[in-house]
Design brief:
Elements: H1 37-41, H2 50-55, E1 63-66, E2 70-74, E3 82-88, H3 103-119, E4 126-128, E5 144-148
Antiparallel strand pairs: 1-2, 2-3, 3-5, 4-5
The protein binds adenosine monophosphate.
C-alpha cells in the first residue's frame, strides 16, 4: 500500500474502491471516519516536544486523520472555526531542518492538509508553517496549520 493509499484514518486491508487521480489521490475521498487510537500512537518518532508526546500517545489529542507518515489533530487554541495541525511522525524541527530526503514527506503533509480541509467542509483555507522563533514558532516539531471557516485577513500579523 502506498503512503497516499494509506490516507484513511482506519486503513483497510482491502483495496480502496474510490477512484483516484493520476497522482494517486482519491477523487472522491471517503467520509471522515473515527480515528483508530492505535494508529495515533504508532510509529512515532521520539522527541521532547509536546507533539512528540502526542505522537507517542502520552497525552491526548483530538485526531482527525492519521497514517504511517503523519498525524492531524485539532489545535488546542483554535484561531478559527477549523484549526487543525498536520505533523510528521518524523521529528523534524521545522522547514529549516528539512533536506532533499524530505521532499516526499513534505509533499505528503501538504496533500494531507488539503484532504483534511475538505474533510472539514472547507472550500477555502490557509496553510501556515512557522519556522523559527522570529516567525512565531512555539512548538519545535514541524507542523502545518490548516485554518479556515471564517474570512482570513492578509497580510498576517
Ligand atoms: P506554532 O506557534 O506555529 O509553533 O504553533 C503551535 C500550535 O500548537 C499553537 O497553535 C498551539 O495552540 C498548538 N498546541 C500547543 N499544544 C497543543 C496541544 N497539546 N494540542 C493541540 N495543539 C496544541
Amino acid at each position: 500500500m502506498s503512503n497516499l493509499e494509506a490516507m484513511s484514518p482506519n486503513p483497510s486491508p482491502t483495496p480502496d474502491s474510490a477512484s483516484t487521480s493520476a497522482a494517486g489521490i482519491p477523487a472522491n475521498p471517503p467520509e471522515p471516519a473515527p480515528v483508530d487510537p492505535s494508529a495515533v500512537g504508532s510509529g512515532a518518532a521520539a522527541n521532547d516536544t509536546i507533539f512528540g508526546r502526542i505522537l507517542r500517545g502520552e497525552i491526548p489529542c483530538e485526531a482527525v486523520y492519521a497514517d504511517d507518515l503523519c498525524l492531524a489533530f485539532r489545535d488546542v487554541n483554535p484561531q478559527a472555526p477549523v484549526h487543525v495541525l498536520v505533523i510528521p511522525r518524523e521529528a523534524l524541527v521545522n522547514l529549516g531542518d528539512a533536506g532533499q530526503q524530505h521532499r516526499e514527506l513534505l509533499g505528503h503533509l501538504l496533500l494531507v492538509a488539503a484532504k483534511v480541509a475538505r474533510q472539514e467542509g472547507l472550500e477555502g483555507w490557509r496553510t501556515v508553517i512557522n519556522s523559527g522563533d522570529e516567525a512565531g514558532q512555539t512548538v519545535f516539531h514541524l507542523h502545518v496549520h490548516v485554518i479556515g471557516g471564517r474570512p482570513l485577513a492578509w497580510p498576517p500579523g
